[in-house]
Design a protein that fits this description.
Elements: H1 4-7, H2 11-20, H3 25-41, H4 43-46, H5 54-61, E1 65-67, E2 77-82, H6 93-110, H7 112-117, E3 119-124, H8 130-135, H9 138-150
Parallel strand pairs: 2-3
Antiparallel strand pairs: 1-2
Helix pairs in contact: 2-3, 5-6
Length: 154
Amino acid sequence: MITLDFCYLHDWTILRFLRGCKFSLEKTKQKIDMFYTCKSLCPEWYTNRDPQDKKMREILEMGMFLPLPGYDPEGRKVVIIRTGAHDPKTTPMDVVLKATTFINDVMIEEDEQHAITGVVQLLDMNGVTAAHALQMSPPLAKKAMTIWQLAVLI
């Protein structure tokens, strides 16, 4: 069941969507629709996102996602993603992707410039094994790319 709280958009949130869509109202409406569609179809990434949760805390503390201080010369936030930092035997990829969306949402919430100039992600592939690659099944990769391309606020 969808509640009003689930659908309420603050002016600040609408502004972020507008910026990400270069102030095109039609694109903004589509992105907002896709944002809430993804939240409802993929609740495992958008619910129970407590940073004190044992598994979430473990991922945050292993330093998989490291936003660097400051910005690059073009004003973008730089984030190092250490893709091989987690143990694929004990940490499911869904949990990693949940943490990824959580951190991205926090960055968008706390840094207005993030939504204006964007972000640069540097992938550190040190320690990546076949087990890491096998965690990213084609359906999971498709879900992640759909959410990141069509539903993220920037």
